[in-house]
Amino acid sequence: MTTQPQTLSIGSWITLSHFSIAEIMADAGFDWLCVDMEHSVIDYYEAEQLFATIQAKGVKPYVRVGENNPRIIKRVLDAGAVGIIVPMVNSREDAIRAVHAVKYPPMGKRGVGLARAQQYGFGFEEYVSHINQTTKVIAQIEHIDAISNLEDILSVEGIDGTMIGPYDLSGSMGKPGRYDDDDVKQALEQYEIVSQRMGKPTGFHVIKPDYELALEKIRKGYTFVAFSLDILFLGTICRNQMNLLKENLQ
Predict the structure, then answer these.
(1) CA nearest 82: which of 141, 4, 18, 160?
(2) Distance between CA 14 and CA 119 in Å, rounded?
(3) Residue of 39, 130, 143, 205 marked active site
(4) What's the pLDDT tens digit per position in 27-43?
(5) 114: exposed, middle or buried (C-beta count within 10 Å: 0-12, 13-18, 19+)?
(6) What is residue 215's three-state secondary structure?
(7) Catalytic residue check, 100
(8) Which partner for 34 in 15, 62, 69, 220 could form a disulfide, CB atoms 3.0-4.6 Å apart?
(9) Is the pTM of this model over 0.70?
(10) 1 falls in which pLDDT band (50, 70, 90)?
């Protein structure tokens, strides 16, 4: 298989629902921002406001859905998301289900509706003419079964890339958080080797707001990089600066 060079794409994560958070982060230079609807309390209405705010700044709105569910995926796409990150894709069948939920026929099974994404019906023809090609489907690889089935997952037409979930992966092996364990390291290495051999973008969420950690992953070949998240960007600078202030008051 001939692989093509992958374009580096750097985004971040949004877990707070206020539009100002999205507006501030969209001005920071990210390629995309992912609204997390799996591990936050953001609802559909709030997500739609965040998508609109992100798009108004010329940034791509992604969303991590709570599960591989066509009803959930259809609603966030109609609200305006242009990329779907799907958790716990562990098999070829899971990957096919995700693609079918995102893509209109004949490539998928997404139902047709008129909402914000289609300009409330006034931009429907333009929308359907390109959306199957432009909407990204990112499969989260976060279980040892997904590592075993990785070639089958990546071979599914419509899977645009993957994102490794190291903690859940290690947990599925009975070794949560033990990244120095030989078996866990081997599983992570297998993810990188297989993904790069098959020419699919490899993804990683660098949690700490430390650019050197992001650079480390990029230099290792990761091309779909989530750089920290709203709460840690905010909390880290608050704590760091307050600690410095208190130290200098002594």
Answers:
(1) 160
(2) 24
(3) 39
(4) 999 999 999 999 999 99
(5) middle
(6) helix
(7) no
(8) 62
(9) yes
(10) very low
